[in-house]
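Most newcomers find our protein records easier to grasp once they have seen one. A learned vocabulary of local backbone shapes supplies the integers on the structure line. An example says more than a description, so a record of this kind follows:
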Amino acid sequence: MKKLTAVLLGLVLAGCSSSSIQYQNSTYQYVAKRTSWHEAKAEAEKLGGRLAIFETVEELMYLESQIPRRRIAWVGLTDEKVEGDWTWLNGTRLSANMRDRLERGRGHEFRDYGYILLQGGLGSRADNGELPRGAHGRPQVDGFVVEFEQ
């Protein structure tokens, strides 16, 4: 818990939101910083956590309800190793009932990194977080969600 408190203090000093979200045995922190998925992953690890992993739809829905609206944020989900085989950073495959918008639209073969749509569900984009050509929505991923296990 001391490490988590120090991390949250560091986020406040860096100008990030200080509110943390508790769900079962994890604490989550939304970091408002536009960055690539790989940079977000490295920063989450540097803070002592990881990009968020959602074991259940209920966990995903709870976090969506707690993070600022109209934001999108990187999470620990990727299909960079095998196209269409979405896995969480802990190696767990994404359940079929959580696939949402991951493979919809054109250019999905170039969108290998998952983000949470804070109006509901999961989506995918390229590492740089930019909106795919011809798509509608926010032009850039706004931040990332760090998960700290207790």
Remarks:
- The radius of gyration is 14 Å.
- Confidence is low (pLDDT under 50) at residues 1-18.
- The chain has one domain: 2-149.
